[in-house]
Design brief:
By secondary structure, this protein is α+β, with helices and mostly antiparallel strands. Helices cover 24% and strands 33% of the residues.
């Protein structure tokens, strides 16, 4: 074998492996907007795993069902077959109450500053906060086969399953496994 080929072969193999891993195993994602506050923030960078099993409370990236050119980051609330209910800010799935500790800080801030300018991300948030009587609207749904019910953590401004409906499994890009940017907010999920 030619010495030049022997020299470059490991580099070509590494590049091919990275390319294949990018296609079949993981995908980088940029958070755009505030629908996942306070868990994830605008412009943070994530890595999603395309091979992970999906479960309740997992954060995923998915195509938006009503505009499949858009990818969004949301939290899985309901799995196929689940009966999901939200009443008076209490999440119940299949008759069992679920704690949402990732929302505690946000709910406290909402209670204190729902009408305060310091908590307003934008005029749309301010308008919704002024008209809101609770952190989220009440609803009750049964999740169909091969579908998921997803919500953003910032329930006041999130466009999610309450608006665009259930997310088909085929639209899900992957499960968020890592936040790598900014570096000071590095986190494994």
């Amino acid at each position: 074998m030619n010495n030049k080929i022997k020299e470059w072969l490991p580099v070509v193999i590494i590049i091919a492996l990275i390319f294949l891993a990018r296609i079949f195993v993981f995908s980088p994602v940029k958070v755009e907007g505030h629908s996942m506050d306070p868990t994830l923030h605008d412009n943070q960078r994530l890595i999603t795993s395309k091979l992970s099993n999906l479960d309740r409370q997992d954060i995923i990236t998915t195509k938006e069902p009503d505009n499949q050119s858009l990818y969004v980051v949301k939290r899985i609330i309901g799995l196929p077959g689940d009966q999901v209910e939200m009443k008076n800010n209490v999440l119940t799935i299949n008759g069992k109450t679920y704690d949402e500790p990732y929302l505690d800080e946000f709910k406290e801030q909402f209670k204190k500053d729902a009408l305060a300018d310091e908590y307003s991300y934008n005029s749309a948030f301010q308008e919704q906060a002024e008209n809101a009587t609770s952190f989220t609207d009440d609803f009750s749904v049964t999740v169909p086969t091969d579908q998921y019910f997803v919500l953003g953590d910032n329930r006041l401004i999130s466009k999610d399953s309450r608006i665009f409906g259930f997310v088909d499994h085929s639209l899900i890009q992957g499960k968020v496994i890592l936040r790598f940017w900014p570096l000071n907010e590095f986190k494994l999920f």
